[in-house]
Amino acid sequence: MIDRDTAKSLVLRYLSTLPPKDGSEWAIEDEKTTELDDVWMFCWTLKKLIERSGKRPGMVGNYPILVDKADGSLYAWTMLEPLDRLLEKLRHDKTALPRLNPEGG
C-alpha cells in the first residue's frame, strides 16, 4: 500500500522531469491533495505561485495526477471524463488510462 509521502515523492520525481516554466519549477499544492479509496490525487502548479503570500495559487493548464495506492503507478486525469468513471477504469482496466512515467520520457 502506497502512503501519502511515498505517493508525493513519486509525483515530485515526475514533476522534476518537466521543463520549468517562467523560471519556476513545478510543485504540489499540498492542501489540495485528496485521498480516495484507490488513489492519491495531487494538484500541482508553479512553485512561485504557491509561494506567493496571501494569494491563492493559480493553475497553469496542468491536470491532477493520480497515484495508485496498490502499486504506485501514476495516471493523468485529463478531466475530460468524470472522476468516478476514471476510478472505475482504474479498478477494472488500467490499460485504458493515460499512464505517466515517474522517470520522465
The whole-angstrom Rg is 14 Å
- Taken in chain order, the helices and strands follow as HEEEEHEEHE
Low-confidence stretches: none
Question: What count of structural domains?
Answer: 1
The chain-level mean pLDDT equals 86
Count the strands?
Answer: 7
Shape: globular
Terminal CA distance reads: 26 Å
**What is the third-level CATH name, the topology?**
Nuclear Transport Factor 2, Chain: A
Beta-strand portion reads 15-25%
Q: Please name the CATH architecture.
A: Roll
The total of helices stands at: 3
Q: Tell me, what is the CATH class?
A: Alpha Beta
Sheet with most strands: 5 strands, antiparallel
Instruction: Decide which structural class fits the backbone.
Output: alpha+beta
**Percent of residues in helices:** 25-40%
Strand order in the sheet with the most strands: 2-3-5-6-7
Characterise the protein shown here.
The chain is α+β, with helices and mostly antiparallel strands and 105 residues long. It has one domain: Roll (Nuclear Transport Factor 2, Chain: A), CATH 3.10.450. The protein has 3 helices and 7 strands. The protein has helices at 4-15, 47-51, 83-92, and strands at residues 26-28, 34-35, 39-42, 44-46, 65-68, 74-76, 99-100. The strands form 2 sheets. The chain has a 5-stranded antiparallel beta sheet with strand order 2-3-5-6-7, with helices on one face. Strands 1-4 form a two-stranded antiparallel ribbon. A hairpin with a 5-residue loop joins strand 5 and strand 6.
